[in-house]
Specification:
With 63 residues, this protein is α+β, with helices and mostly antiparallel strands. It is built from two helices and four strands. It has one domain: 2-Layer Sandwich (Alpha-Beta Plaits), CATH 3.30.70. A two-stranded antiparallel sheet has the order 1-4. It has a two-stranded antiparallel ribbon with strand order 2-3. GO terms for molecular function: 3 iron, 4 sulfur cluster binding; metal ion binding. Keywords: 3Fe-4S, Electron transport, Iron, Iron-sulfur, Metal-binding, Transport. It comes from Actinomadura decatromicini.
Length: 63
């Protein structure tokens, strides 16, 4: 499973950071960084929830 962000759509609301902080982070410029694009199995449910919860639908999950 791999997660991607569309930087043109992302508004850095940080919903994903709150739901899966081991995978997502905001940098000093308030841009979303994906810390672990290849999602480990133990994070899969949280990342799926974060992708579904993104208010701008800026995240994509390839399973």
């Amino acid at each position: 499973m791999r997660v991607r962000v569309d930087p043109l759509v992302c508004e850095a609301n940080a919903v994903c950071v709150g739901l899966a902080p081991d995978v997502f982070d905001l940098d000093d410029d308030d841009e979303l960084r994906i810390l672990r694009p290849d999602v480990p199995p133990e994070e899969a449910d949280r990342v799926r929830h974060a992708v579904r919860s993104c208010p701008k639908a800026a995240l994509t999950l390839d399973e």
